[in-house]
Amino acid sequence: MFFKQISRTIALPLSLIFNQVMPVAYVPPDWKMAVMTTVYKTGASYDCCNYSPISVTCVISKLFERVVANKVRDHLISNNMLHPAQHGFMNGRSTCTNLLESANDWTFYLQDKHQVVIVYIDFRKAFDVVSHKKLFTVLHSYGIRGNLFTCRLCIFSQGVHIVLRLVPSCQIFLL
How many CB atoms lie within 10 A of CB 58? Predict the structure, then answer.
């Protein structure tokens, strides 16, 4: 909220910093530091499975990561590398627009007396288990190279995590 209130004041200094960081492909260590904590979901409070881990990271780092992610997305769009049905991580599209588009397609198929088979796959934790090495190999094969690639790699590598608060019955791990 604070950064939104001062966005006009800090836009130029941040752009200068980001423009200095990008050519050398160096991300300051403080930008990669995260404070880890847990948030209670539901169920028995003594069960570790009923807590979600969250990390609080530097706001400037999040802004820089958004700039880099936008550059990657723009590259993929301008080179027609994304399928037209892609909804995730696209401006103006979401899981809601995807569901509406799918429901519309299903309705047309049913009206034309076709069979419709719908399979739901839960990808909820899919990103948590993606191999970053494989992800960067794919990005490289899609033409994401140079400083943009190195910055993206640097953002995801060698993060420093500090555990702040955990459920008493859980073990504490420093990553």
Answer: 16
CA distances, 89 to each of 5, 24, 36, 73, 149 (Å): 25, 27, 25, 8, 18
Whether 116 contacts 109, CB under 8 Å: yes
- Residues linked to residue 33 through DSSP beta bridges, in sequence order: 160
* Alpha carbon of residue 154 to chain centroid: 15
Report the pLDDT value the prediction gives residue 152, as an integer from 0 to 100. 67
pLDDT at 159: 53
**For the whole prediction, is pTM greater than 0.90?**
no
Which amino acid is it at 16?
A: L
Predicted pLDDT of residue 174 = 44
Query: pLDDT below 70 — which residues of the chain?
Result: 124-128, 148, 151-175
Q: Cα 163 vs. chain centroid, distance in angstroms?
A: 21
Amino acid identity at 18: F
DSSP class per residue in 68-83? HHHHHHHHHHHTT-S-
Question: Can you give the pLDDT at residue 112?
Answer: 95
Class of residue 98 by CB neighbours under 10 A (exposed 0-12, middle 13-18, buried 19+): middle
Q: 25 near 147, Cβ under 8 Å?
A: yes
CB 72 within 8 A of CB 152: yes
DSSP label at 158?
A: S
* Residue 155: predicted pLDDT: 65
